[in-house]
Automatic annotation (TrEMBL):
InterPro entries: DoxX, DoxX-like_oxidoreductase. The keyword Repeat does not apply. It is found in: Cell membrane. This is DoxX family protein. The chain crosses the membrane at residues 69-88, 95-112, 124-140. The lineage of its organism: Bacteria, Pseudomonadati, Pseudomonadota, Alphaproteobacteria, Hyphomicrobiales.
Length: 152
């Protein structure tokens, strides 16, 4: 049995074969847009935290992360600077891993600590899955990682 690697979409049978070119042409662009939006949203979310990096100390200690000042600072930097790194595609995998970890903590917080279940954790689950995608895939060819020719 032989395993043949094919490029994206080349070996798939499409219901509308004429769309193959469209899908192939925009494959990397769609992934880049997702990375830019996810990173940008994380920056915006972290903007309030980075202006007061120790402001979440009490909240993170309430989740069991001690000392609160350290974890609050780390949370602020992960969201703000990690979002910038993800958006531009520099150190994409470690930045996305850190963001995914933060989102998984928020899943725990909403689902278990606040007893909100899936409904309370839904957005965090979706965002964690988006960042998992970039942990696995990296920044793609439209990233600073690709320009440098190195990635994690």
């Amino acid at each position: 049995m032989s395993l043949t690697l094919t490029t994206e979409n080349s070996g798939r049978r499409l219901f509308i074969p004429a769309l193959r070119g469209l899908y192939s042409n925009f494959h990397d662009s769609a992934e880049t847009i997702l990375r830019l939006v996810a990173g940008g949203a994380l920056v915006i979310h972290g903007l309030g935290k980075i202006s007061d990096p120790f402001g979440a100390a009490e909240m993170v200690e309430g989740l069991g992360f001690y000392p609160g000042a350290f974890w609050s600072l780390l949370l602020s930097c992960t969201e703000f600077f990690g979002g910038i790194l993800i958006a531009i595609g520099l150190f994409t995998r470690p930045a996305a891993f850190a963001a995914m970890f933060v989102l998984l903590v928020t899943v725990w917080f909403h689902w278990v600590t606040m007893s909100q279940g899936y409904q309370g954790a839904e957005k965090s689950i979706i965002w964690a899955a988006i960042f998992l995608f970039f942990v696995i895939r990296g920044g793609n060819r439209h990233s600073v990682d690709a320009r440098l020719g190195r990635e994690f």
